[in-house]
Amino acid sequence: MSIDNQTLEQLCLTAKLDLKTEDQSRFLLELESIFHLFHCLDKFSDIDEERDIPHHTAFRQDQIKHESIKGYLNQLAHFDESKHMFEVPKVIENE
Amino acid sequence: MSNNMYFISDYRKKLDAKEASATELATDLLAAMKKKEGKINAMITIDESSTLAHAKKADHMLANGQGRTLTGIPIVHKDNLCTVDFPTTAGSKILENFKSPYNAFVVQQTYDEGMVCMGKASCDEFAMGSSNEKSYYGKVHNPYELNHVPGGSSGGSAASVAAGYAPLSTGSDTGGSVRQPAAFCNLTGLKPTYGGVSRFGLIAFASSLDQVGPIAHSALDCGYLMDVISGHDARDSTSLPNPKLNYVDTIVNGMDVRSLRIGIPKQINDINLDDSVAKVFSDTIKQFEQMGATMVEVDMNLLEYAVPAYYIIAPAEASSNLARYNGALYGYRAPAKTLEEMYINSRTDGFGDEVKRRILIGTFVLSKGYQGAYYQKAINVKHAFTHQLQHIFNDVDFMITPTTPRKPFEFNQFKNPVQAYETDALTIPANLTGLPAVSFPAGFDGPLPIGVQLIGQHYQDHRLLALVHAYQQATSWHEQLATSF
């Protein structure tokens, strides 16, 4: 993976950051070297298959119903003054 | 008076013999801090009135027979732990002058104990760094050699203890941020088992890795603080339900080192250690052998994946955790014409380069199309690594490594962030696996301290400290104090 100006601009847009023009090339170089570090993990895929890695931790984006969670929290969350925190019941029921 | 007092026992004796009140001790320390701070810059906030209020409360507790083990003992808190009476900045401009409406669990425990907070220690911005050069409030100097870094991110916490501002401090450790500065400042620092100390009120960096831990001159003093700050807290969903461990009792009762097997990962040979670090590590192994431990080689072949996996997982979590800093709710707000502009301007002006870099990495590795290639793979490494270390612990009681491959380095040493990241190679495994690990003083390269790390099994934190205590009974490295200021 190599990172270009367009990707960097897109990342900044998503992260709500605005790099100064003079900083962009430095950030590009630094990010490039960091992504190069990640290439070490390419070797890991072989090992991954040999090992019994639990798959229950895999992201299941399709199972997350954002709207129902937001609605649930808006309805039931309350601020507990004594604990200085929002409290929500532990079990989120199925729709 | 304060110049000769470094251990909790020094303070306890003075207080118990009524040779000095907590208020007198705090007043002396505040005066000494003001003199030394010009050279060290370990503190972001010193607030005399708040400190003296703590000391007065401690004196009241002692006078009324309500004193506890650490009542009247000074402590410094890392500035990413929320405090009501001191500002909490996390070393960032974006939280400049921020005052929390509540105390962190750890802070409240020390307040309830009657400890005296001497102020808030500097740290790398949002605990992201290994040198304390990344704080918005200026770099911190190592009390052992002023033109060298004190380590990071809890560099202010370590430097403040090494400089004698207090016998104890708190730090947070996401990838080595308690242990590495402890090693660089000739101190003992514990990263507890994940979930052993509540993260409630700790400003989040990478929530699945963050853990609060003590920094002190000795393992025994770390144990005293762990007895106060550890235990279950319902407000942290990852807090372990187990009962508290008895730290001081375990440490004082002693440990039979002769029955122990200590593992040495053979992959350490593949890491480019400084010569003096390699020498100190070798000497430490010999010392444990002389004490009767059996040293065995173990195979930790996933070690090479630790740094890349960590620098995917931690920035991924950081990019999410730091999304809340947008000028609307906390701290710094930049001038802007629209809401979107306010978000962007506040974050752009408020965050330093290292934080921006990690937010961008995190945003990238979680983005559509790359999540599987990076984040998911890093999570798989984390699981595999945990499994591997559990397997190793079937054969040994503890593992030993140098704390860092490098001795304390000079300022502006690294031209590329990856060079700095790679120095975390030996501390990261304990964070990825949630295991407890402790760094302790083990030797010097000239004036520069060098630390060695022991890693234990889950919830064996007290036994880790007991083993270090046994080592410190047989050696005197931890008693060699800083003299450069």
- Sketch the major β-sheet of chain A: 2 strands, antiparallel
What is the helix fraction of residues of chain A, given as a range? 40-55%
Helix-strand sequence of chain B? HHEHEHEHEHEEHHEHEHHHHEHHEEH
Please indicate the percent range of residues of chain A in DSSP E strands (runs of 2 or more).
5-15%
How many distinct helices of chain A?
4
Q: Average pLDDT value of chain A?
A: 72
Uncertain spans of chain B, ≥5 residues at pLDDT below 50?
A: none
Q: Roughly how many Å apart are the termini of chain A?
A: 41 Å
Please give the oligomerization state of what you see: heterodimer
Fold and architecture overview:
The complex is a heterodimer of chains A (95) and B (485). Chain A has helices at 5-15, 21-38, 44-50, 66-76, and strands spanning 78-80, 85-87. By secondary structure, chain A is mostly helical. A two-stranded antiparallel sheet of chain A has the order 1-2. The longest helix of chain A is centred in the N-terminal third of the chain and has 18 residues, at 21-38. The radius of gyration of chain A is 21 Å and the shape is elongated. Chain A starts with a helix and ends in an 8-residue tail after the last strand. Chain B is of the alpha/beta class and 485 residues long. In chain B, 39% of the residues lie in helices and 12% in strands. Chain B is built from 16 helices and 11 strands. Chain B has helices spanning 8-16, 22-40, 48-63, 105-113, 155-162, 179-184, 219-229, 247-253, 275-290, 306-321, 339-350, 353-365, 372-392, 417-421, 428-433, 461-474; strands at 43-45, 74-78, 116-121, 168-172, 188-191, 212-216, 261-265, 294-298, 398-402, 437-445, 448-455. In chain B, strands 1-3-2-4-6-5-10-11-9-7-8 form an 11-stranded mixed sheet, with helices on both faces. In chain B, helix 4 links the parallel strand 2 and strand 3. In chain B, helix 2 packs antiparallel against helix 3 and helix 7 runs antiparallel to helix 16. Chain B is globular and about 65 Å long. The two termini of chain B are 16 Å apart. The mean pLDDT of chain B is 96.
